């Protein structure tokens, strides 16, 4: 379970400014595997017809950032981020941040 926060790392690949050390790489995950996982996430966000802003917010939500933190990063109002998160959950058919994250990471937990 202590490796769970690092499952989010592939989400960071499209956001190089937020890149962190790569413990998955040290545990045998290659760059190709991480890139493929990131591509799968991006493809799903496209399938759900997210706007570019919604895609960015979705990745930051998966990373675990709060609405306040996301608003600060994006130089937006927290209310705007909340509204976009609501659209993300509606478009994905999922109920909230936890269900949204679980949709992407559930297979890792078996």
From TrEMBL:
InterPro entries: Sig_transdc_resp-reg_C-effctor (IPR016032), Tscrpt_reg_LuxR_C (IPR000792), WH-like_DNA-bd_sf (IPR036388). Residues 47-104 form the HTH luxR-type domain. Transmembrane segments: none annotated. It comes from the Bacteria. GO terms for molecular function: DNA binding. GO terms for biological process: regulation of DNA-templated transcription. This is Helix-turn-helix transcriptional regulator. The lineage of its organism: Bacteria, Pseudomonadati, Pseudomonadota, Gammaproteobacteria, Thiotrichales.
């Amino acid at each position: 379970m202590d490796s769970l926060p690092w499952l989010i790392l592939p989400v960071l690949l499209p956001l190089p400014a937020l890149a962190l050390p790569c413990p998955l790489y040290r545990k045998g995950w290659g760059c190709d595997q991480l890139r493929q996982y990131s591509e799968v996430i991006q493809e799903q966000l496209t399938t759900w017809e997210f706007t570019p802003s919604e895609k960015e917010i979705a990745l930051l939500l998966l990373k675990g950032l709060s609405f306040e933190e996301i608003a600060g990063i994006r130089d937006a109002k927290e209310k705007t981020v909340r509204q976009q998160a609501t659209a993300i959950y509606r478009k994905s058919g999922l109920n909230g941040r936890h269900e949204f994250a679980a949709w992407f990471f559930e297979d890792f937990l078996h």
